[in-house]
């Protein structure tokens, strides 16, 4: 039965229409107010939240400056590599983890390691996956499409010279920051300063666009050295060969240019390869040329002879009686090497024969302070070049007679191989001690230094040092074909636990060439040769000869060994002799 109250075609009640319209108007008003509120009061907050989800600041690594040799050859360079990293919130999610397997097959990390990293970095926005990847491999990994992965440009240090001179150059860490040697000493200028950029990322956390540069990257500055990388390689090879041949503990070679004072080569043994960190063992990266000291031994005798000449009390022909090959001073007996009895020698022959007794008698006839002052003026007791890790050695002032005697033949004083090389610049010049440097000097540069001996004294000492390298002297194996050279051997007993060890030595030779106009000073030290030979003339002098011959060839130095000059070099003595202690 039809409802009598409801009439067909009657419209709904008016109040219901008003209610619906009012609700719609209220909704639109609310939305309008919300839009206004969000675009005004909440604008900064919402923009920050959006940026946090889609914008990120990234550091732009600077390229580390190169280290170059004197001719522009690269000694150290940073090559571009890619580091693979991820946003943990995306990369560590379950859907991304399901895609890890192809990635794990190409990198050096396991699933367990990545999972542990995800746990540690869960609240961070950044985690490294693998650093220092070759660019081609990094791009292949990105093509796997694992969510949250990104690349960051970094740099890896490479040393083209390998082990040659590695202790001098040093090395960097995984972040390309200097750790040792010149890399550490010049880290501020080599490193540069990082920049920062703002980048846009997509919903998957991948970075798709660089938005703006916040701070411009400043790349590192190049460092040019006086070193000749060719000589570094040759010196390293010759030194390593000598260390192996004589079963030695190590050694050093230093080559200086005259008159510029430039350090042309500085190598040490044992070596390490800075490109392979597995070769870096305890002490291998120590630059022994400036960190290790030795007593100079007989290499100091030319300075005692020069001091005697400067005093006016002696000349080259002054005679000294060394018989019977020993002398007692202050209750201590000083003997000749190999128990020689040279008898009566001239001052020149005292140097050529390397006579301990002869140089002791000469020194004791003159005031101790004259010898001390001469050695101090020649640079002993202070650093030579302010290089990383360099020590100054020691030159103690002692006045007992036995200390006066031992100082005259190189005991009781200590010096680095670089100090010894620098000291011999007084004989390679006309008596001036050259300042030494690793900075490349312009062609023809003449370094200025203090005068130690007068030119007449130096001329006399050069004749003695040339004779020392003749068949009649202690360094006959230092000679090189067609060139006159001068130099002095040293065979030093090592101080072990406060006493000089009878069978542990350091073998040295320091010389210069060509003698008519010296261009280079070379110092060679071999530590603890344990083979058949241990004298400086047998162990160190051949290294000098090989490297100096290369110096003459590489720098096109004209030969000066004319027949008459060569013969004159051997006239200072007539009898064969042995190396000094």
SS strand fraction: 15-25%
For the biggest sheet, the summary is: 5 strands, mixed
- What is the count of DSSP helices, taking H or I runs of 4+ residues? 23
**Residues in helices, as a percent range:** 25-40%
Q: Name the shape in a single word.
A: elongated
Main attributes?
single chain, 581 residues, alpha+beta, five-stranded mixed β-sheet, five-stranded antiparallel β-sheet, elongated, disordered C terminus
Describe the fold and architecture.
By secondary structure, the protein is an alpha+beta fold. Helix content is 34%, strand content 20%. The chain contains 23 helices and 17 strands. Strands 2, 3, 4, 5 and 8 form a 5-stranded mixed beta sheet that branches. A 5-stranded antiparallel beta sheet has the order 10-9-17-16-15, with helices on both faces. β16 and β17 form a beta hairpin. α13 packs antiparallel against α20 and α15 crosses α17. It is elongated and about 150 Å long.
Topology diagram in text:
Elements: H1 14-39, H2 43-54, E1 55-60, E2 67-68, E3 74-86, H3 88-91, H4 94-97, H5 100-104, H6 111-120, E4 127-133, H7 135-142, E5 149-158, H8 166-169, H9 181-185, H10 187-191, E6 195-201, E7 207-215, E8 223-224, H11 229-245, E9 250-257, E10 263-269, H12 288-291, H13 301-311, E11 319-321, E12 326-329, E13 332-335, E14 344-346, H14 347-353, H15 356-364, H16 368-377, H17 401-408, H18 417-423, H19 425-428, H20 455-468, E15 486-496, E16 499-513, E17 520-527, H21 536-539, H22 541-554, H23 563-568
Helix pairs in contact: 11-22, 13-16, 13-20, 14-20, 15-17
